[in-house]
Amino acid sequence: MAVSRLWTTSSGHFRPSYTSYLKRFMNNDFPDASIEEWHIEAKIKKWRRTCFIIVNLLDRPGFEWDASQNMVVAEDDVWDAFIQVNKQAREARDVQFPLFEDWRVCFISPPEEPEE
Questions:
Q1: pLDDT of 13-41, one tens digit each?
Q2: What's the CA gap between 32 and 46, in Å, rounded?
């Protein structure tokens, strides 16, 4: 959905009807889950927030992405100093994020569509 013009605007944001589509899709696959649009919106909001925290960390000196562990890594003193300034960064310390590359596509920069 992140790369489809059907579901995204020219600025890369999802169109308003995307949650109702996802709800129908998920309710077909998981009929007993009782998934509501607000569940989807809350999860996407959390993923977007976490994605931006990770991107922010990776823009700072001393932080790197370890693809083998799917996590942000840095020396303890670098983490401690940054967490003093940005408390949200604590959420990313010693946590694996196997969906980060997908989040980056959805929330930061969707891949370019091939030219025809």
A1: 666 677 787 888 888 888 888 888 888 88
A2: 24
